[in-house]
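Example S7 (C-alpha cells).
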C-alpha cells in the first residue's frame, strides 16, 4: 500500500486508512477475553535454544516492491538469529487472494500463516475448523499481544471462547473523516463544524457552496463534492451490519427508530431511514450539491481546488500537501469498533501448519521488535530510506530512490503495513507526526465498544438466501441507481427493491440471525430481544 490509507481501508485509508495506536507501541488496555488468561511468558519469546531450523510459509497481500528480495534476505537474517526460521512470504494480489486462500486451506498444502478477513471467509473457515486455536500459543510465545491489542478487539477473533486470529494494532474502529480544502475554507470564512453524521455536514456544504459560487462564478455549475454517502448508509445512520440485509442498532443511540438497542436484527433496506437516504441522494443531486452520474473521473476539477473535499474512512492524520490544495482533516466524533471492522485484517495459523509455535514466535517479533517492524515496512536503511534528526525516516532519501518523486515508485515502502501486525512497532515515516501513536490510541480507546463485538454469524442455514439477496442489493443499492440520485420515483423503486428482497428470503436471513444473536447475547450476559 503506497499511500496513507486505513483504512481500508480506508479502507482506504488508510492510512489514514486507516489507523492507529498508543505511545511506545502499546496501549494501557489489557487484552484478555472470555476463555483466556493472561500468560506469564515462561517460555521467552524469541529464545531459540535448540530449535531446529524451519521455513514458515505465509500468504498475504502486501505490495511486491522492487527491493523486496533484498529486504526479505535481511528479514531472514534476523529471524534466523532470533527464532531459527526462514520466512517465505508469498505476496498475492488482492483480487486473487480469496481463491488462493481457499486452495491452500482445502488442499492441506504446507501453510503456516495467512491473512484472513471477514470478506475472505474467516468466519466460515473458523466454523469449519480450518484454523488453530491461539489462546495457549499467545500465552506461551507472545503474551505481549494481550496488552498491545485492545480488549474489545479480541472478541472479533473469538469463536466458542477460542481465539483463532491475531489482530494487528491499527485503527480498529470505523471512523469517517472529511478531508477538506483548507484554502476554500480560509477564503470563504465558512467553518467546518463538529460532526457525527452527514446530517451535521449538509448545512456546511450548502453554505460553503453558496460562498464559493459567489467568489468564483465560473464554478457555480459544479457540485461542492464529488460524492456524498455513496453506498454507505452509515454516514447518515450509523449501524452495525451483520449480513448483507441484516443490521442492528448502535447501542446507546437510536439512529433507527424503534429498532431496539443492539439486540434486534432488522432488514436495513426495509427501514424508513434507508428510504430517506435514497430520497436525500436524489435531493442533493437535484440541488446541485452532488453530481449526477460520472463526474471528474480524471480528478482535474478536484485538483483545481473547486471542490470541498472527500469523505473517506480511517484517517488518523494527514499532510497538508496531500492534495494540490491545503488539505485538512475533520474526523467524525463517533468511532465504532465492530466485529466486521476488526475482521478487516487479521492473521491466522491454519491447522495444517507443522510449526504453530514458531509461527507465533514470528507474530510476536512482528508486533514487538521495532527493527523487524521497520524493515518489513520500509526496507533497508540507507538503501530504501534515511533517518532524519527527529527520529522519523524519509524514504525519498534512500540511495535507491534518488530522483523518485512518486510514492508509487519507491524501492520499498509498505505503510501502514497492517498486514504484518502492530503498525506503530516501527520507526515512523516523516509523513506522520510524533503524535500519531497517541492519536491512534485515542481513536481505539475512545471508540464505541458496547455492541456485538465477538458475535460471529453461522451463514450455513441461510447461504442461498444471502447469495440471492446479494444479487438484488447490487441491482438497486448502487451509485448508478438509488444511491446516485438517478431515480425519479424513489418510493416506487424502494418498494420494488424491498419486495424482491423479501421474495428472495430476506426475512429468513433476519430471523435466523436474530436467533443466533439472541443465543450469543444470552451467553455473554447481554440483554436480548
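Recovered sequence:
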Amino acid at each position: 500500500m503506497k499511500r496513507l490509507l486505513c483504512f481500508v481501508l480506508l479502507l482506504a485509508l488508510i492510512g489514514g486508512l486507516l489507523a492507529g495506536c498508543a505511545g511506545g507501541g502499546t496501549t494501557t488496555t489489557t487484552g484478555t477475553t472470555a476463555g483466556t488468561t493472561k500468560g506469564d511468558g515462561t517460555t521467552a519469546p524469541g529464545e531459540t535454544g535448540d530449535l531446529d531450523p524451519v521455513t514458515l510459509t505465509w500468504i498475504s497481500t502486501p505490495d511486491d516492491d522492487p527491493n523486496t528480495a533484498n529486504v526479505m534476505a535481511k528479514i531472514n537474517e534476523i529471524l534466523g538469529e532470533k527464532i531459527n526460521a526462514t520466512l517465505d512470504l508469498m505476496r498475492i494480489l488482492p483480487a486473487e487472494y480469496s481463491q488462493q486462500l481457499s486452495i491452500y486451506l482445502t488442499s492441506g498444502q504446507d501453510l503456516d500463516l495467512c491473512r484472513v478477513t471477514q470478506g475472505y471467509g474467516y468466519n466460515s473457515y473458523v466454523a469449519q475448523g480450518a484454523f488453530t486455536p491461539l489462546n495457549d500459543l499467545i500465552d506461551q510465545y507472545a503474551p505481549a499481544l494481550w496488552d498491545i491489542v485492545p480488549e474489545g478487539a479480541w472478541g472479533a477473533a473469538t469463536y466458542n471462547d477460542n481465539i483463532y486470529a491475531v489482530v494487528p494494532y491499527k485503527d480498529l474502529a470505523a471512523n469517517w473523516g472529511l478531508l477538506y480544502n483548507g484554502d476554500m475554507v480560509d477564503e470563504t470564512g465558512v467553518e467546518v463544524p463538529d460532526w457525527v453524521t452527514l446530517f451535521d455536514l449538509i448545512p456546511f456544504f450548502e453554505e460553503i457552496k453558496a460562498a464559493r459560487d459567489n467568489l468564483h462564478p465560473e464554478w457555480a455549475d459544479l457540485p461542492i463534492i464529488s460524492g456524498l454517502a455513496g453506498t454507505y448508509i452509515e454516514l447518515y445512520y450509523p449501524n452495525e451490519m451483520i449480513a448483507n440485509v441484516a443490521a442492528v442498532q448502535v447501542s446507546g443511540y437510536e439512529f433507527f427508530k424503534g429498532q431496539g438497542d443492539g439486540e434486534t436484527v432488522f432488514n436495513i433496506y426495509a427501514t424508513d431511514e434507508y428510504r430517506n437516504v435514497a430520497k436525500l441522494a436524489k435531493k442533493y443531486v437535484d440541488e446541485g450539491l452532488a453530481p449526477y452520474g460520472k463526474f471528474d473521473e480524471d480528478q482535474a476539477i478536484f485538483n483545481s481546488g473547486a471542490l470541498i473535499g472527500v469523505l473517506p474512512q480511517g484517517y488518523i492524520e494527514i499532510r497538508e500537501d496531500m492534495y494540490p490544495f491545503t488539505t485538512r482533516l475533520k474526523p467524525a466524533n463517533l468511532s465504532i469498533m465492530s466485529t466486521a471492522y476488526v475482521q478487516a485484517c487479521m492473521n491466522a495459523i491454519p491447522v495444517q501448519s507443522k510449526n504453530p509455535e514458531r509461527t507465533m514466535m514470528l507474530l510476536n517479533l512482528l508486533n514487538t521488535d521495532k527493527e523487524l517492524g521497520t524493515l518489513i515496512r520500509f526496507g533497508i536503511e540507507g538503501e530504501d530510506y534515511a533517518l532524519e534528526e527527529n527520529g522519523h525516516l524519509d524514504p525519498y532519501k534512500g540511495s535507491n530512490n534518488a530522483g523518485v518523486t512518486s510514492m508509487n515508485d519507491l524501492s520499498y515502502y509498505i505503510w501502514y503495513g497492517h498486514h504484518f501486525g502492530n503498525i506503530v512497532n516501527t520507526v515512523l515515516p516523516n509523513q506522520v507526526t510524533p503524535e500519531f501513536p497517541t492519536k491512534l490510541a485515542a481513536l481505539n480507546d475512545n471508540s464505541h465498544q458496547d455492541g456485538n463485538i465477538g458475535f460471529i454469524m453461522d451463514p450455513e442455514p441461510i447461504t442461498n438466501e444471502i447469495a440471492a439477496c446479494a444479487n438484488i442489493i447490487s441491482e438497486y443499492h448502487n451509485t448508478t441507481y438509488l444511491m446516485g440520485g438517478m431515480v425519479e420515483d424513489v418510493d416506487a423503486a424502494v418498494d420494488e427493491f424491498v419486495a424482491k428482497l423479501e421474495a428472495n428470503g430476506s426475512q429468513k436471513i433476519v430471523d435466523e440471525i436474530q436467533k443466533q444473536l439472541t443465543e450469543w447475547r444470552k451467553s455473554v450476559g447481554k440483554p436480548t430481544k
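Notes on this example. Residues 23 and 437 are 5 Å apart (CA to CA).
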